[in-house]
Amino acid sequence: MELQKLINADCVIPKLAASSKKQALHELSLCAATHTGQEQQAIFDALLERERLGTTGVGGGVAIPHGKLACLDQLYGLFARLDTPIDFEAIDDQPVDLIFLLLAPESAGADHLKTLSRVSRLLRDKAVCEKLRECDSCENLLALITDRAPSLAN
Known about the structure:
Elements: H1 3-6, E1 12-16, H2 21-36, H3 40-53, E2 57-59, E3 62-63, E4 66-69, E5 76-86, E6 96-105, H4 109-124, H5 126-134, H6 138-148
Parallel strand pairs: 1-5, 3-6, 4-6
Antiparallel strand pairs: 2-3, 5-6
Helix pairs in contact: 2-3
């Protein structure tokens, strides 16, 4: 799925306040519940379950938490830039300040993996991450995420 179809300005949080990984996931699950129509606790539980398998802190100040929910009918994305970097147990032991949350239906198999890969490629680009860190509006963050993504597809 193209990122333009996955995320909109309402799903971008330019200044998320969180002091821990668990608090960040809780805040993101609250926002995701509003956009997906799913229960916040179900989203939070799915994210925590995935984190138990291994951290989604991929390094470079980036985390891509993700989970699958049976009741979803499509993929959903949220992006947050944290006010203050937090420990996310990232693979490089560096604090995280950029988070892209991905939620998928349980049946999403290949689509989920392709979208996860697309998000990962986007956020591995150090120049993109620097620009994301410099933005302070939902619209500018969204433009960076969605305008850059097509050239990275497949």
